[in-house]
C-alpha cells in the first residue's frame, strides 16, 4: 500500500472521489471479485510456507512456562498460550514490584535503561501506575504481539486517512502499521534475528493476537457523507459492510464475535460509526479520540487515543526544542481557541481578556502573527477545555511545550490512563470551578508545579509521533493499550 502521509503534498485526485461515491459497491465487489479471492488464497499459502518464522517465534518464548520436557514435540504455542505466558510474566513482575515497594527497595528492575532512562525511581513511581509491570508488559508486547491488518478494500476510505490537521492520527496510525509489512527475507534468517517492534504486523492471520480494521471515519465523512445532513447512515453502512466482508472471507471475526478486533477513529463521529455493526460496538476494541465516558466509552475495553493536530503533517519545530523550566515562565496559564461548546463558553465568559500579562485567555488562535506555541512555552499551565468533543489537541501540545495541562472536561477518559497517573503531570479542574480557575491554580505550591513539570517531561516521549515509530512513542503506546485490552489485564495496582 502506498504511504499516503508520505505523499501529503499531492492534491486529492478527482478519481478518488468517484471511487468513493460508490463505496459500498466497491467493498462488496472486492469481496466477490475473482482477483481478490485469488490474492486471499495467496495469503493463506504464504501462511503455510513460513515454518522458519514459527520456529523463530516459539524459540523467542524464553519464559519458564514454555520450557518443555526432553523428547516432547516442539510445536509453536497457540496464540492463546502465548497470551497466557505473557499474562503470567506480567502478573509476577507486578506482584514482585508490589512486595519490593512495601519493603522499601527502590528498584524497578535491572537493565531496563531504555525504560527508566536514568530517571529517579520516585518520579517513575509517581508517573506510572506500576512502573515494573508496565515495563514488563511493554517488553512482552515487543517480543510477542502480532497484529493482522485486513487487506480488503481500497483507499481513500480503507487503508488511508488524513495526514494533517486535527484527525492526523487516523492516517498516521494506518500508514505506520501498513508500512510495517514483514519482509519474508528477514523472517527466514532463522533463529538469529531478534524481533523488533516493527515486526508487530504479521502477514499470517492465524498467528495474530489482534486484527485491525483499517478504515478511516474522517475519510468516510469527507467522501461518503452528504454535507449538512447530519445523516450518519452512510458511515454506519460502510462499517457494517466492511465487517461483513471480512467476516465472510476469514474465520477470525466469527471465532471471537469481534472481541480480538480493533478500529481506530479520531473523528467526533467515531463512536457513532462503530455502532454500524452490533458486534463491533459490543465486543470490539474501539480506539477513539472521542473518549467520552458519558457516550458509552468503556475505559477497560476501548482505547483512548491522543488527539494531535499537525497543521502541515509535521511535528511543530517550536515544540521540539527543549522548553523553559517553570520558574522562567511569566504566565500562570494560557488559552486561545474558539467558543466551541459550553465548557469553552464558560471559560471565555469568565477569563477572556481579564489579565493578559499573567493569565492570557484569548478567543481564536489564528490571528496574524499570533505565536500560539510561544505562549504555551511561557505558561506554567495550559488550559485544555473540551470543545465540541471531549478530547483536545491542546493536551498533547501542552505536553510537547512542557506546560502542565489543565484538563477541563466532563467525562474525558484520558489517553494511556491504563499505565499513566495523569495526576502526576496534569491538573484536572471540575467544570463547575472554572469561575475560580485562577485561584485554584495559584494555590498550587511552586515545588508541586515543578514536580508536575518533571512528570510532563518524563511522559513527553509517549506523546511524540515519529516516523518511523520509536520505542514508547505515541504509535507504540496506542498499540500497547490494544495489547493490554487483548490480554484483558489491568496494570493499575
Ligand atoms: C538498584 O539496582 C542497581 C543495579 O542492579 C544497584 O546497583 C542498586 O544498588 C540498586 N538499588 C537499590 C536501592 O536496591
Ligand atoms: C460468519 O458469520 C456470518 C453470519 O452468520 C456468515 O454469513 C459468514 O459466512 C460466517 N463466516 C465464515 C467465514 O464462515
Ligand atoms: C459527552 O457526552 C455527553 C452525553 O452524551 C454529552 O452531553 C456531552 O456534551 C459530551 N461531551 C462533549 C464535550 O462532547
From TrEMBL:
InterPro entries: Exostosin, Exostosin_GT47. It is a single-pass type II membrane protein. Its main location: Golgi. It is found in: Golgi apparatus membrane. GO terms for cellular component: Golgi membrane. Coiled coil: none annotated. Residues 142-443 form the Exostosin GT47 domain. GO terms for molecular function: glycosyltransferase activity. Keywords: Glycosyltransferase, Golgi apparatus, Signal-anchor, Transferase, Transmembrane. PANTHER family: EXOSTOSIN HEPARAN SULFATE GLYCOSYLTRANSFERASE -RELATED, OS04G0109900 PROTEIN. Belongs to the glycosyltransferase 47 family. This is Putative glycosyltransferase. It comes from Zea mays (Maize). The lineage of its organism: Eukaryota, Viridiplantae, Streptophyta, Embryophyta, Tracheophyta.
Amino acid at each position: 500500500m502506498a504511504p499516503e502521509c508520505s505523499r501529503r503534498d499531492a492534491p486529492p485526485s478527482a478519481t478518488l472521489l468517484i471511487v468513493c461515491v460508490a463505496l459500498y459497491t466497491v467493498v462488496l465487489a472486492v469481496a466477490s471479485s475473482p482477483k481478490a479471492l485469488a490474492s486471499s488464497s495467496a495469503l493463506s499459502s504464504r501462511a503455510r510456507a513460513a515454518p522458519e518464522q514459527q520456529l523463530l517465534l516459539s524459540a523467542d518464548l524464553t519464559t519458564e512456562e514454555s520450557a518443555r520436557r526432553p523428547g516432547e514435540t516442539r510445536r509453536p504455542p497457540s496464540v492463546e498460550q502465548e497470551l497466557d505466558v505473557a499474562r503470567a510474566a506480567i502478573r509476577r513482575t507486578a506482584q514482585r514490584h508490589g512486595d519490593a515497594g512495601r519493603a522499601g527497595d527502590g528498584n524497578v528492575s535491572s537493565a531496563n535503561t531504555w525504560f527508566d532512562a536514568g530517571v529517579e525511581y520516585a518520579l517513575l513511581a509517581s508517573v506510572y501506575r506500576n512502573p515494573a509491570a508496565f515495563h514488563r508488559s511493554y517488553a512482552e508486547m515487543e517480543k510477542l504481539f502480532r497484529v493482522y491488518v485486513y487487506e480488503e478494500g481500497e483507499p481513500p476510505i480503507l487503508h488511508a486517512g488524513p495526514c494533517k490537521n486535527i484527525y492526523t492520527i487516523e492516517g498516521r496510525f494506518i500508514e505506520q502499521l501498513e508500512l510495517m509489512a514483514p519482509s519474508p527475507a528477514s523472517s527466514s534468517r532463522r533463529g538469529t534475528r531478534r524481533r523488533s517492534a516493527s515486526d508487530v504486523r504479521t502477514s499470517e492471520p492465524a498467528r495474530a493476537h489482534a486484527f485491525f480494521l483499517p478504515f478511516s471515519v474522517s475519510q468516510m465523512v469527507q467522501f461518503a457523507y452528504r454535507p449538512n445532513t447530519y445523516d450518519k447512515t452512510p458511515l454506519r453502512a460502510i462499517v457494517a459492510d466492511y465487517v461483513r466482508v471480512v467476516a465472510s472471507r476469514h474465520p477470525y471475526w466469527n471465532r471471537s464475535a469481534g472481541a480480538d478486533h480493533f478500529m481506530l477513529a479520531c473523528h467526533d463521529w467515531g463512536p457513532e460509526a462503530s455502532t454500524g455493526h452490533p458486534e463491533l460496538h459490543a465486543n470490539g476494541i474501539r480506539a477513539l479520540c472521542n473518549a467520552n465516558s458519558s457516550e458509552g466509552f468503556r475505559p477497560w475495553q476501548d482505547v483512548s487515543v491522543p488527539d494531535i493536530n499537525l497543521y502541515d503533517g509535521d511535528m511543530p519545530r517550536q515544540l521540539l526544542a527543549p522548553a523553559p523550566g517553570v520558574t522562567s515562565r511569566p504566565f500562570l496559564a494560557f488559552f486561545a481557541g474558539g467558543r466551541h461548546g459550553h465548557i469553552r463558553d464558560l471559560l471565555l465568559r469568565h477569563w477572556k481578556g481579564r489579565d493578559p500579562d499573567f493569565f492570557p485567555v484569548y478567543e481564536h488562535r489564528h490571528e496574524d502573527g499570533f505565536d500560539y506555541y510561544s505562549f504555551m512555552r511561557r505558561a506554567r499551565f495550559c488550559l485544555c477545555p473540551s470543545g465540541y468533543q471531549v478530547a483536545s489537541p491542546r493536551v498533547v501540545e501542552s505536553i510537547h511545550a512542557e506546560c502542565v495541562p489543565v484538563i477541563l472536561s466532563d467525562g474525558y477518559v484520558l489517553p494511556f490512563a491504563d499505565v499513566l497517573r495523569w495526576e502526576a503531570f496534569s491538573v484536572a479542574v471540575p467544570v463547575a470551578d472554572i469561575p475560580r480557575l485562577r485561584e485554584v491554580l495559584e494555590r498550587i505550591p511552586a515545588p508541586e508545579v515543578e514536580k508536575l513539570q518533571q512528570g510532563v517531561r518524563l511522559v513527553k516521549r509517549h506523546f511524540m509521533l515519529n516516523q518511523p515509530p520509536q520505542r514508547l512513542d505515541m504509535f507504540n503506546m496506542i498499540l500497547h493499550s490494544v495489547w493490554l485490552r487483548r490480554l484483558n489485564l489491568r496494570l493499575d495496582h
